[in-house]
Design a protein that fits this description.
Layout: E1 8-9, E2 12-13, E3 30-32, E4 48-52, H1 60-64, E5 75-78, E6 82-89, E7 100-105, E8 117-120, E9 132-139, E10 142-148, E11 156-166, E12 169-172, E13 181-184, H2 199-207, E14 210-217, E15 220-227, H3 235-245, H4 256-266, E16 276-278, H5 297-306, E17 310-313, H6 315-329, E18 333-343, E19 350-355, E20 369-381, E21 392-397, E22 403-404, E23 407-408, E24 410-414, H7 415-420, H8 429-437, E25 439-445, E26 451-457, E27 464-468, E28 475-477, H9 479-482, H10 489-500, E29 519-525, E30 534-542, E31 548-559, E32 565-578, E33 582-590, H11 592-595, E34 604-613, E35 618-627, E36 634-638, E37 647-654, E38 661-670, E39 674-684, E40 689-696, E41 702-711, E42 718-726
Parallel strand pairs: 5-13, 16-17, 19-25
Antiparallel strand pairs: 1-2, 3-12, 4-6, 6-10, 7-8, 7-11, 9-10, 11-12, 11-13, 14-15, 18-20, 18-27, 20-21, 21-24, 22-23, 25-26, 27-28, 29-30, 30-33, 31-32, 31-34, 34-35, 36-37, 37-40, 38-39, 38-41, 41-42
Length: 732
């Protein structure tokens, strides 16, 4: 069954790597051995005339395997679970004299010991977790089989053959694409490595094709729906193509650890021409801005057809597409958002913020960054490569941040291992531990070249870690799955464990946390709407009997959501005098004209306040980010919301700015309701409204969503959605 290569190396036959699901090599239809008499006639033996796979959406094969939602006319089953096929012969089957078996083949160089050639034996009873076929019905010339795949078999698209034994060799059916069978991971099977024992969680993390991704700021959490679309036409083939592009050996594609690690590398295009090219510089020439995407379908289908990376993505786009990849293959997965996520370049659990002597941030020395939020994925699986107890949710991150074993990828890293500080367990646990546990260290860079640690903030990083609720669109706080509460004995023990296992942390911060004066500082930024003025209020409180004078500095920056500053739009120095046991507030007016000219697409403003108590030389430092409130796209629907019936969808947007918007694209998406579509408008004048109508015909019943986004030269991250309840088509 294997195509051999003529080359040999040191007495070892060299079979080329089997790395493509799409490549094929058909086995011979007749394999005769030895001398064959002239009287031998193929028609004298059992011959296959037809094979029936029961692959319609309503057939039990798809309903029982939870694959009836896939918009795919091939048979799709989940491993470790039985399914039915029927074979028609040229005469009645006689088990005493007739011998046949079903064969499954994947790739171009199939080998039985690699699991790429699977001869399925006909057995009297199926054994749990093992390949087998049991005759459950014989009727005239037909035989119906219950076929069961092993619970650890390769995941992919198999070619199916039926082989009949004769005294002189094997007669095999010819290649028939109609009998191709997809085999997926099975969270419903106890023997499968991705088994999940909660039905509601399986419905959410495997079968739900619409999700919610949280973004924004810890103090102003925002959300947007995302169309995963894992069941849409062409998506399953696109996901298999992603593994082919990675040249992933087929024999490893039954292991969710390997599949998720390869996926984390291939969803980004950084070093392997993967699915999405990232861009964080606010310039999106020859591509689509990350904020304009409403789902994964367009991205994966474009990658499959063009065979080139799709431009452009940022963390939530990488996470959304990766979630589609995992769920489509049957691995339970969810998108997670970490607010105030540390990008610690050397994973030393410390983010150094360097200050000038006047309190301003030294951008040349400050290399680490705090992302306002960062999205990654969690995938559910056992971890037989780790000690018992570290299976379950695993962090996998496809946003290209740091190099891991020569490629930009991250994970799978056990969430349980991260919580307890066991960062020695593969893969990339130290980096993820740093993302949620680093300390912020403020250091003054003196003019003489020395560095003085001024203050330490141990609670800023990993402030809140969230995901979507099971069965709802609300927020689920999962921070306690990653870390113990600050100050608990367990939290200190987890940190010590991480340090013991090599997560280095300089000890120069010991003893610097205590303030030498009784002065405390905080500041608040009022809710700000895009294009309007707002105030920053700074409060100084003196809890002691002494009199203090303070020199303070406020810096306002336009920032990327990654915490990297683009431009400073406000800087102001001011003096404050504090009487004993008193407080004083200072108000700063931020005018729209100061920030609008350089605004980035997510409308993040970052404020940094430092203050020096002149009498004690104490330095106080605080930083906060805000997200400006951006207007929404409005979606309305007219007509009956019924499967197969036309309904009119209206998308509407009013320009709130005092300037004309140009080169506007509006995107509309809704899995099961409409394919992703878009429309361009030349301009929208101030306070003017544009409307766009489309006729849609839903093909999926139940709760659905329509999602729309708008992007233009001056305004991005504009979004809107509408929930629908699509009724079944009334029976006649």
């Amino acid at each position: 069954m294997s195509e051999s290569s003529g080359a040999t190396f040191g007495g070892r036959r060299a079979i080329p790597p089997n790395t493509s699901n799409a490549s094929e090599n058909d086995p011979p239809t007749v394999e005769l051995q030895g001398l064959v008499p002239r009287s031998f006639n193929l028609q004298d033996y059992l011959n296959v005339t037809a094979v029936h796979l029961f692959k319609e959406r309503w057939d039990s094969n798809k309903v029982d395997h939870h694959t009836d939602k896939y918009n795919n006319n091939k048979l799709i089953v989940r491993r470790g679970q039985s399914f039915y096929i029927q074979i028609d012969f040229n005469r009645p089957y006689n088990p005493r004299r007739d011998l046949f078996r079903v064969e499954y083949v994947i790739g171009r160089y199939p080998q039985e010991n690699k699991g790429t050639y699977i001869p399925v034996p006909v057995v009297s009873e199926l054994q749990s977790g093992k390949w087998g076929a049991k005759v459950i019905m014989r009727e005239d010339r037909s035989v119906r089989l219950s076929v069961q795949s092993s619970s650890d078999c390769i995941v992919g698209k198999f070619r199916m053959y039926v082989a009949v034994w004769t005294p002189y060799g094997v007669i095999r059916t010819s290649r028939n694409p109609e009998t191709d069978t997809y085999i997926l991971f099975n969270p419903w099977c106890e023997e499968d490595a991705v088994y999940l024992d909660n039905e509601k969680e399986r419905e959410e993390y495997v079968l739900n094709d619409i999700g919610v991704i949280f973004y924004g700021d810890f103090n102003d959490i925002k959300s947007r729906s995302w169309s995963y679309g894992q069941f849409e036409d062409g998506i399953l083939d696109a996901c298999l193509y992603v593994m082919d592009r990675a040249k992933m050996d087929l024999s490893g594609r039954g292991n969710p650890i390997k599949v998720s690690r390869v996926g984390s590398a291939m969803i980004n295009a950084k070093d392997d021409e993967g699915v999405i090219a990232g861009s964080w510089d606010n310039v999106y020439a020859y591509g689509i801005p990350p904020s304009a995407w409403t789902g994964s379908v367009d991205i994966l289908l474009e990658y499959r057809s063009s065979e080139n990376p799709v431009r452009y993505g940022q963390c939530w786009v990488f996470a959304g597409v990766f979630n589609t990849f995992l769920r489509c293959l049957g691995i339970p997965a969810r998108v997670v958002t970490n607010y105030f996520s540390a990008h610690d370049n050397n994973a030393n659990l410390q983010l150094d913020i360097f200050l000038e002597e006047d309190g301003n941030v030294n951008s040349k020395l400050t290399k680490d960054s705090v992302w306002n939020y960062h999205c990654w994925n969690e995938a559910w699986m056992t971890r037989p490569d780790l000690p018992i107890g570290f299976g379950g949710w695993q962090v996998v991150d496809s946003t290209p941040q740091e190099n891991s074993d020569g490629m930009y990828r991250c994970g799978p890293a056990s969430v349980q291992a991260i919580k307890h500080g066991n960062v020695c367990f593969q893969f990339d646990a130290p980096f993820v531990f740093a993302e949620v546990n680093s300390d912020l260290v403020y250091i003054t860079a003196k003019k003489d070249g020395t560095h003085v640690v001024e203050t330490l903030d141990t609670t800023h990083i990993g402030k809140l870690i969230v995901t979507k609720q099971v069965g709802g669109d609300g927020i689920k706080d999962i921070t306690d799955t990653y870390k113990f509460q600050e100050g608990q004995e367990e939290e200190r023990l987890a940190l010590e464990t991480a340090l013991m296992y090599g997560a280095k942390k300089p000890l120069s911060t010991e003893g610097v946390v205590k303030s030498r004066s009784d002065v405390h500082m905080n500041f608040e930024v009022e809710n700000a709407v895009l294009g309007r003025d707002f105030k920053v209020t700074i409060t100084f409180r003196n809890n002691g009997p002494a009199h203090y004078t303070i020199t303070a500095y406020l810096s306002g920056n336009i920032t990327f959501y990654t915490g990297v500053a683009k431009a400073e739009f406000k800087n102001e120095t001011f003096d404050v005098t504090l009487e004993p046991l008193s407080f004083k507030t200072e108000e700063m007016l931020i005018q729209a004209g100061e920030y609008m000219g350089q605004l980035l697409e997510q409308a993040f403003l970052h404020f940094f306040v430092t203050a020096r108590v002149n009498e004690t030389k104490d330095v106080l430092a605080k930083q906060k980010s805000i997200v400006l409130t951006i207007p929404k796209v409005i979606i309305k629907v007219h007509g009956a919301q019924v499967v197969g019936s036309d309904m009119v969808v209206m998308v509407e947007f009013t320009n709130p700015l005092k300037e004309t918007l140009k080169n506007i694209w509006i995107y509309l998406d809704g899995p099961g309701v409409t394919k992703p579509i878009r429309k361009m408008f030349q301009e929208i004048r101030p306070n003017s409204t544009v409307q766009w109508e489309e006729v849609c015909r839903p093909w999926v019943s139940g709760p659905r969503k329509l999602m729309a986004s708008l992007t233009s030269d001056r305004l991005r991250h504009v979004y809107g959605e509408l929930e629908l309840q699509i009724q079944r088509r009334p029976s006649v």
